Automatic annotation (TrEMBL):
The gene is tilS. GO terms for molecular function: ATP binding; tRNA(Ile)-lysidine synthase activity. InterPro entries: Rossmann-like_a/b/a_fold, TilS/TtcA_N, tRNA_Ile_lys_synt, tRNA_Ile_lys_synt_N, tRNA_Ile_lys_synt_subst-bd. Keywords: ATP-binding, Cytoplasm, Ligase, Nucleotide-binding, tRNA processing. This is tRNA(Ile)-lysidine synthase. Residues 267-334 form the tRNA(Ile)-lysidine synthase substrate-binding domain. It is found in: Cytoplasm. It catalyses: cytidine(34) in tRNA(Ile2) + L-lysine + ATP = lysidine(34) in tRNA(Ile2) + AMP + diphosphate + H(+).
Length: 339
Protein backbone atom coordinates (compact mmCIF):
# COMPACT_ATOMS: atom_id res chain seq x y z
CA UNK A 1 0.00 0.00 0.00
CA UNK A 2 1.38 3.37 -1.04
CA UNK A 3 1.66 6.51 1.07
CA UNK A 4 -1.30 8.74 1.85
CA UNK A 5 -2.18 10.97 -1.17
CA UNK A 6 -1.07 14.10 0.69
CA UNK A 7 2.29 12.54 1.53
CA UNK A 8 2.68 11.30 -2.04
CA UNK A 9 1.97 14.82 -3.35
CA UNK A 10 4.61 16.53 -1.24
CA UNK A 11 7.20 13.86 -1.98
CA UNK A 12 6.60 14.09 -5.71
CA UNK A 13 6.99 17.89 -5.62
CA UNK A 14 10.30 17.60 -3.76
CA UNK A 15 11.53 14.75 -5.96
CA UNK A 16 11.10 16.89 -9.08
CA UNK A 17 13.08 19.76 -7.57
CA UNK A 18 15.86 17.45 -6.37
CA UNK A 19 16.19 16.06 -9.89
CA UNK A 20 16.67 19.63 -11.15
CA UNK A 21 19.27 20.34 -8.44
CA UNK A 22 21.14 17.15 -9.35
CA UNK A 23 21.14 18.04 -13.04
CA UNK A 24 22.43 21.55 -12.27
CA UNK A 25 25.15 20.08 -10.06
CA UNK A 26 26.27 17.59 -12.70
CA UNK A 27 26.53 20.42 -15.23
CA UNK A 28 29.20 22.17 -13.13
CA UNK A 29 32.73 22.11 -14.59
CA UNK A 30 34.06 19.98 -11.72
CA UNK A 31 31.27 18.66 -9.47
CA UNK A 32 32.64 17.30 -6.20
CA UNK A 33 30.56 14.86 -4.17
CA UNK A 34 26.78 14.85 -3.82
CA UNK A 35 25.11 18.29 -3.60
CA UNK A 36 23.80 19.55 -0.26
CA UNK A 37 20.22 20.84 -0.07
CA UNK A 38 18.99 22.69 3.00
CA UNK A 39 15.36 23.10 4.01
CA UNK A 40 14.34 26.33 5.75
CA UNK A 41 11.97 25.27 8.52
CA UNK A 42 9.94 27.40 10.92
CA UNK A 43 8.16 24.44 12.49
CA UNK A 44 4.88 25.26 10.73
CA UNK A 45 2.95 22.71 8.70
CA UNK A 46 4.27 23.83 5.31
CA UNK A 47 7.96 23.73 6.19
CA UNK A 48 7.66 20.59 8.36
CA UNK A 49 5.98 18.79 5.45
CA UNK A 50 8.80 20.01 3.22
CA UNK A 51 11.45 18.80 5.67
CA UNK A 52 9.85 15.36 5.91
CA UNK A 53 9.64 15.02 2.12
CA UNK A 54 13.27 16.10 1.72
CA UNK A 55 14.40 13.63 4.39
CA UNK A 56 12.57 10.84 2.54
CA UNK A 57 13.59 11.66 -1.04
CA UNK A 58 17.17 12.91 -0.70
CA UNK A 59 18.83 9.59 0.27
CA UNK A 60 17.06 7.84 -2.58
CA UNK A 61 18.52 10.29 -5.11
CA UNK A 62 22.00 10.60 -3.64
CA UNK A 63 21.52 14.14 -2.34
CA UNK A 64 22.77 15.32 1.05
CA UNK A 65 20.00 16.97 3.07
CA UNK A 66 20.20 19.42 5.96
CA UNK A 67 18.00 21.99 7.65
CA UNK A 68 18.05 25.46 9.11
CA UNK A 69 15.65 27.32 11.38
CA UNK A 70 15.80 31.04 12.04
CA UNK A 71 14.89 32.57 15.39
CA UNK A 72 13.69 36.13 14.76
CA UNK A 73 13.41 36.84 18.47
CA UNK A 74 10.08 38.58 18.01
CA UNK A 75 8.00 36.49 20.43
CA UNK A 76 8.43 35.19 23.98
CA UNK A 77 9.86 31.67 23.94
CA UNK A 78 11.09 31.91 20.36
CA UNK A 79 14.54 30.57 21.28
CA UNK A 80 13.01 27.46 22.86
CA UNK A 81 10.80 26.90 19.81
CA UNK A 82 13.80 27.23 17.49
CA UNK A 83 15.65 24.59 19.50
CA UNK A 84 12.59 22.35 19.32
CA UNK A 85 12.51 22.70 15.52
CA UNK A 86 16.20 21.86 15.42
CA UNK A 87 15.49 18.68 17.37
CA UNK A 88 12.69 17.73 14.96
CA UNK A 89 14.96 18.22 11.94
CA UNK A 90 17.66 16.12 13.58
CA UNK A 91 15.08 13.41 14.31
CA UNK A 92 14.34 13.34 10.58
CA UNK A 93 18.04 12.51 10.11
CA UNK A 94 18.86 15.75 8.37
CA UNK A 95 22.51 16.77 8.67
CA UNK A 96 23.78 19.46 9.06
CA UNK A 97 21.09 21.23 11.09
CA UNK A 98 21.52 24.90 11.99
CA UNK A 99 19.68 27.19 14.40
CA UNK A 100 20.40 30.87 13.72
CA UNK A 101 19.29 33.87 15.76
CA UNK A 102 18.87 37.15 13.88
CA UNK A 103 18.26 40.76 14.82
CA UNK A 104 15.24 42.21 13.02
CA UNK A 105 15.45 45.88 12.08
CA UNK A 106 12.64 48.30 11.36
CA UNK A 107 13.18 49.20 7.71
CA UNK A 108 10.15 48.80 5.45
CA UNK A 109 7.80 47.62 8.21
CA UNK A 110 7.89 44.54 10.46
CA UNK A 111 7.08 41.96 7.78
CA UNK A 112 9.71 43.23 5.34
CA UNK A 113 12.33 43.63 8.09
CA UNK A 114 11.80 40.06 9.31
CA UNK A 115 11.97 38.74 5.75
CA UNK A 116 15.22 40.61 5.04
CA UNK A 117 16.83 39.29 8.23
CA UNK A 118 15.66 35.74 7.46
CA UNK A 119 17.02 35.69 3.91
CA UNK A 120 20.33 37.16 5.04
CA UNK A 121 20.63 34.31 7.56
CA UNK A 122 19.69 31.70 4.94
CA UNK A 123 22.22 33.11 2.48
CA UNK A 124 24.93 33.00 5.15
CA UNK A 125 24.04 29.41 6.10
CA UNK A 126 24.09 28.29 2.47
CA UNK A 127 27.53 29.84 1.98
CA UNK A 128 28.82 28.40 5.26
CA UNK A 129 27.79 24.84 4.40
CA UNK A 130 28.37 25.05 0.65
CA UNK A 131 24.71 24.23 -0.07
CA UNK A 132 23.62 23.94 -3.68
CA UNK A 133 20.05 25.00 -2.81
CA UNK A 134 17.71 26.05 -0.03
CA UNK A 135 14.12 24.76 -0.15
CA UNK A 136 11.31 27.08 0.97
CA UNK A 137 7.82 25.91 1.94
CA UNK A 138 5.69 28.53 0.18
CA UNK A 139 2.44 26.98 -1.05
CA UNK A 140 -0.15 27.80 -3.70
CA UNK A 141 -2.10 29.68 -1.02
CA UNK A 142 0.95 31.84 -0.25
CA UNK A 143 1.26 32.53 -3.97
CA UNK A 144 -2.37 33.65 -4.19
CA UNK A 145 -1.87 36.00 -1.24
CA UNK A 146 1.22 37.46 -2.87
CA UNK A 147 -0.68 38.14 -6.11
CA UNK A 148 -3.47 39.90 -4.22
CA UNK A 149 -0.94 42.05 -2.39
CA UNK A 150 0.71 42.92 -5.70
CA UNK A 151 -2.67 43.80 -7.18
CA UNK A 152 -3.36 46.15 -4.26
CA UNK A 153 -0.02 47.90 -4.82
CA UNK A 154 -0.82 48.46 -8.48
CA UNK A 155 2.84 48.06 -9.46
CA UNK A 156 2.33 46.27 -12.76
CA UNK A 157 2.87 42.85 -14.27
CA UNK A 158 5.96 41.93 -12.29
CA UNK A 159 4.21 42.50 -8.95
CA UNK A 160 1.41 40.15 -10.08
CA UNK A 161 3.86 37.38 -10.93
CA UNK A 162 4.20 36.35 -7.30
CA UNK A 163 7.07 34.20 -6.10
CA UNK A 164 9.35 32.42 -8.54
CA UNK A 165 9.87 28.67 -8.32
CA UNK A 166 13.59 29.43 -8.56
CA UNK A 167 15.16 32.65 -7.25
CA UNK A 168 18.21 34.08 -5.55
CA UNK A 169 21.85 34.10 -6.58
CA UNK A 170 22.62 31.16 -8.89
CA UNK A 171 19.09 29.81 -8.36
CA UNK A 172 19.74 29.14 -4.68
CA UNK A 173 16.12 29.25 -3.51
CA UNK A 174 13.67 26.59 -4.68
CA UNK A 175 9.93 26.49 -3.89
CA UNK A 176 8.65 22.95 -4.54
CA UNK A 177 5.15 23.56 -3.13
CA UNK A 178 3.90 26.44 -5.32
CA UNK A 179 1.42 24.01 -6.91
CA UNK A 180 0.52 22.35 -3.56
CA UNK A 181 -2.18 23.83 -1.35
CA UNK A 182 -1.85 24.52 2.37
CA UNK A 183 -4.47 21.91 3.24
CA UNK A 184 -2.32 19.19 1.66
CA UNK A 185 0.80 20.09 3.64
CA UNK A 186 -1.16 20.16 6.90
CA UNK A 187 -2.75 16.79 6.14
CA UNK A 188 0.66 15.32 5.28
CA UNK A 189 1.97 16.38 8.68
CA UNK A 190 -1.07 14.93 10.41
CA UNK A 191 -0.87 11.48 8.81
CA UNK A 192 2.88 11.32 9.52
CA UNK A 193 2.31 12.41 13.15
CA UNK A 194 4.58 15.40 12.68
CA UNK A 195 4.02 18.07 15.34
CA UNK A 196 3.57 21.56 13.92
CA UNK A 197 3.66 25.05 15.38
CA UNK A 198 1.13 27.69 14.31
CA UNK A 199 2.78 31.12 14.35
CA UNK A 200 0.38 33.57 16.05
CA UNK A 201 1.63 36.30 13.70
CA UNK A 202 -0.14 34.43 10.87
CA UNK A 203 -3.48 35.23 12.53
CA UNK A 204 -2.60 38.74 13.75
CA UNK A 205 -4.66 41.38 11.87
CA UNK A 206 -1.86 43.88 12.43
CA UNK A 207 -0.04 42.16 9.57
CA UNK A 208 -1.20 42.83 6.02
CA UNK A 209 -0.70 39.27 4.80
CA UNK A 210 -2.72 37.95 7.74
CA UNK A 211 -5.67 40.15 6.74
CA UNK A 212 -5.43 38.92 3.17
CA UNK A 213 -5.35 35.31 4.39
CA UNK A 214 -8.18 35.47 6.90
CA UNK A 215 -10.41 38.22 5.49
CA UNK A 216 -9.79 39.08 1.83
CA UNK A 217 -9.41 35.60 0.32
CA UNK A 218 -12.34 34.02 2.22
CA UNK A 219 -14.53 36.95 1.16
CA UNK A 220 -13.51 36.48 -2.48
CA UNK A 221 -14.24 32.77 -2.32
CA UNK A 222 -17.63 33.46 -0.76
CA UNK A 223 -18.49 35.94 -3.52
CA UNK A 224 -16.92 34.15 -6.48
CA UNK A 225 -16.89 30.51 -5.44
CA UNK A 226 -14.10 28.04 -4.91
CA UNK A 227 -11.12 28.13 -7.20
CA UNK A 228 -10.01 31.71 -6.46
CA UNK A 229 -6.71 30.58 -4.94
CA UNK A 230 -5.93 28.34 -7.91
CA UNK A 231 -6.87 31.11 -10.37
CA UNK A 232 -4.65 33.65 -8.61
CA UNK A 233 -1.74 31.20 -8.59
CA UNK A 234 -2.28 30.60 -12.32
CA UNK A 235 -2.32 34.37 -12.86
CA UNK A 236 1.08 34.53 -11.16
CA UNK A 237 2.61 32.13 -13.67
CA UNK A 238 1.05 33.84 -16.69
CA UNK A 239 2.14 37.25 -15.40
CA UNK A 240 5.66 35.96 -14.79
CA UNK A 241 5.91 34.67 -18.37
CA UNK A 242 4.69 38.03 -19.70
CA UNK A 243 7.03 40.00 -17.43
CA UNK A 244 10.00 37.86 -18.46
CA UNK A 245 9.24 38.50 -22.14
CA UNK A 246 8.86 42.25 -21.57
CA UNK A 247 12.10 42.36 -19.59
CA UNK A 248 13.95 40.65 -22.43
CA UNK A 249 12.48 43.19 -24.88
CA UNK A 250 13.50 45.97 -22.51
CA UNK A 251 17.13 44.76 -22.52
CA UNK A 252 17.29 45.41 -26.24
CA UNK A 253 15.29 48.65 -26.09
CA UNK A 254 17.46 50.08 -23.32
CA UNK A 255 20.52 49.83 -25.53
CA UNK A 256 18.75 51.33 -28.54
CA UNK A 257 17.50 54.50 -26.79
CA UNK A 258 20.79 55.61 -25.29
CA UNK A 259 21.81 58.87 -26.90
CA UNK A 260 25.45 58.14 -26.04
CA UNK A 261 26.71 54.74 -24.77
CA UNK A 262 29.07 56.59 -22.44
CA UNK A 263 26.13 58.46 -20.84
CA UNK A 264 23.62 55.83 -19.62
CA UNK A 265 21.47 58.51 -17.96
CA UNK A 266 20.76 60.31 -21.27
CA UNK A 267 18.09 58.78 -23.49
CA UNK A 268 16.86 59.75 -26.95
CA UNK A 269 13.32 61.17 -26.74
CA UNK A 270 12.24 60.17 -30.25
CA UNK A 271 13.35 56.57 -29.80
CA UNK A 272 11.66 56.39 -26.40
CA UNK A 273 8.42 57.73 -27.87
CA UNK A 274 8.39 54.99 -30.52
CA UNK A 275 8.51 52.18 -27.93
CA UNK A 276 5.38 50.42 -26.65
CA UNK A 277 4.37 52.01 -23.31
CA UNK A 278 5.05 48.84 -21.30
CA UNK A 279 8.62 48.65 -22.61
CA UNK A 280 9.25 52.40 -22.37
CA UNK A 281 8.20 52.52 -18.72
CA UNK A 282 10.49 49.63 -17.89
CA UNK A 283 13.39 51.48 -19.52
CA UNK A 284 12.54 54.59 -17.49
CA UNK A 285 12.37 52.64 -14.25
CA UNK A 286 15.71 50.94 -14.88
CA UNK A 287 17.33 54.26 -15.76
CA UNK A 288 16.05 55.92 -12.57
CA UNK A 289 17.34 53.04 -10.44
CA UNK A 290 20.73 53.13 -12.19
CA UNK A 291 20.92 56.86 -11.39
CA UNK A 292 20.43 56.14 -7.66
CA UNK A 293 16.67 56.00 -7.02
CA UNK A 294 15.90 53.22 -4.48
CA UNK A 295 13.79 50.55 -6.21
CA UNK A 296 11.50 50.13 -3.19
CA UNK A 297 10.65 53.84 -3.15
CA UNK A 298 10.08 54.21 -6.89
CA UNK A 299 6.34 53.95 -7.51
CA UNK A 300 4.12 53.88 -10.59
CA UNK A 301 3.31 57.60 -10.22
CA UNK A 302 7.02 58.47 -10.50
CA UNK A 303 7.35 56.53 -13.75
CA UNK A 304 4.16 58.09 -15.09
CA UNK A 305 5.57 61.57 -14.43
CA UNK A 306 8.76 60.62 -16.27
CA UNK A 307 6.69 59.21 -19.12
CA UNK A 308 4.82 62.51 -19.51
CA UNK A 309 8.13 64.25 -20.21
CA UNK A 310 8.18 62.13 -23.37
CA UNK A 311 4.54 61.71 -24.38
CA UNK A 312 2.88 64.86 -23.01
CA UNK A 313 5.60 67.50 -23.11
CA UNK A 314 4.29 70.95 -22.07
CA UNK A 315 7.47 72.57 -20.86
CA UNK A 316 7.46 70.82 -17.47
CA UNK A 317 10.25 71.46 -14.99
CA UNK A 318 12.56 68.73 -13.74
CA UNK A 319 10.84 65.88 -11.86
CA UNK A 320 12.17 64.99 -8.43
CA UNK A 321 12.49 61.25 -7.82
CA UNK A 322 13.43 59.31 -4.66
CA UNK A 323 17.12 59.19 -3.79
CA UNK A 324 17.72 62.82 -4.88
CA UNK A 325 17.41 61.81 -8.52
CA UNK A 326 15.88 64.16 -11.07
CA UNK A 327 14.57 63.65 -14.59
CA UNK A 328 14.42 66.52 -17.06
CA UNK A 329 14.04 67.07 -20.75
CA UNK A 330 16.94 68.78 -22.49
CA UNK A 331 16.65 69.24 -26.21
CA UNK A 332 15.96 65.86 -27.73
CA UNK A 333 17.16 63.96 -24.67
CA UNK A 334 15.73 62.77 -21.38
CA UNK A 335 18.38 63.29 -18.71
CA UNK A 336 18.13 61.25 -15.48
CA UNK A 337 20.77 62.13 -12.88
CA UNK A 338 21.55 62.84 -9.24
CA UNK A 339 20.42 66.35 -8.33
Amino acid sequence: MGPHPAVAAIRLAVRRVLHDILNDHRALPAPSGPPLTLVACSGGADSMALASALAFEAPRLGVRAGGITVDHGLQPGSADRALDVTARLTALRLDPVDCVTVSVGRGGGPEAAARDARYAALDAAAERHGAAAVLLGHTRDDQAETVLLGLARGSGTRSLSGMAAISGAHGRYRRPFLAVDRQTTRRACMVQSLPVWDDPHNADPAYTRSRVRHEALPMLEKALGKGVVEALARTAQLSRDDADALDAWTDEAERSVRADPALPGELDIARLYSLPPAVRRRVLRRTAIAAGAPAGSLFARHIEEMDRLITAWRGQQAINLPGRVEALRRGGRLVVRQS
